TrEMBL record:
This is YdcF family protein. It comes from Streptomyces hebeiensis. Residues 44-146 form the DUF218 domain. It holds the Pfam family DUF218. Coiled coil: none annotated.
């Protein structure tokens, strides 16, 4: 941890772990019509998408995502393009991958991926969303709102909380992101972006406490 990073207390870790677990849908992967790998800073999405493809769970994989301030330097040609290249390196045939290179948020990930699939003549009834671990619930809620006629399953790299934090290398940032995504789960339904989901009392309490402790860099104005 660098000198300018915030030291995380044991109690903050415990509360963050509650939020982490809530964000994951705990769906069991099974065969689906298509998978959509949601672009982000986390190349593990592409890695896990490739693993699930090689396991025979779907014939078609869409990678979606343009650039954001947090990914432009890492993925200068766009998230989806880099994810595709990584998946091909891991053995996914290029013909099995469709690319949606323009999405700038989760709603666009879903809507534009749906358009790319339609243009390819694919109308799925089951869709597997592959995302960062703490983004499963938000992506599920968004897809259920925007694509209600398909069955949505979610998957992410099967990492424990501590291992994920180590893979990112910035404890404070990960806790900020956990808090920011939970805020979106809570706030987006009233804005029409996602379906409503129950937040257990202990998870909501952990969320409010982490905000009080200053894990706020990924919050949106509400």
């Amino acid at each position: 941890m660098s000198d300018n990073q915030q030291a995380i207390t044991e109690d903050q870790w415990r509360r963050a772990a509650l939020v982490w677990d809530y964000h994951q849908m705990h769906h069991r992967p099974r065969p689906v019509d298509v998978a959509i790998g949601l672009g982000s800073h986390d190349l593990g999405v592409a890695t896990h998408s490739a693993e699930l493809y090689r396991a025979g769970l779907f014939p078609t994989l869409v990678f979606t995502g343009g650039n954001s301030p947090t990914t432009a330097k890492v993925f200068p040609r766009g998230e989806a393009v880099h994810f595709r290249e990584h998946a091909i390196d891991l053995g996914v045939p290029s013909k099995a991958i469709l690319v949606e290179p323009d999405a700038g948020n989760t709603g666009q990930n879903i809507t534009l991926s749906r358009e790319v699939l339609a243009a390819a003549g694919i109308t799925p009834t089951t869709v597997l969303l592959v995302s960062k671990p703490y983004m499963e619930r938000r992506s599920f809620a968004t897809a259920r709102k925007l694509w209600p006629d398909v069955e949505i399953l979610c998957a992410s790299e099967p990492l424990e909380f501590d291992d994920y934090v180590k893979s990112i290398g910035d404890e404070k940032l990960v806790l900020d992101m956990l808090v920011g995504d939970l805020q979106r789960v809570i706030e987006y339904p009233r804005l029409g972006y996602a379906i409503e989901q129950e937040v257990p009392e202990d998870v909501h309490g952990a969320y409010e406490s982490l905000i009080h402790d200053g894990f706020t860099s990924r919050l949106i104005a509400s």
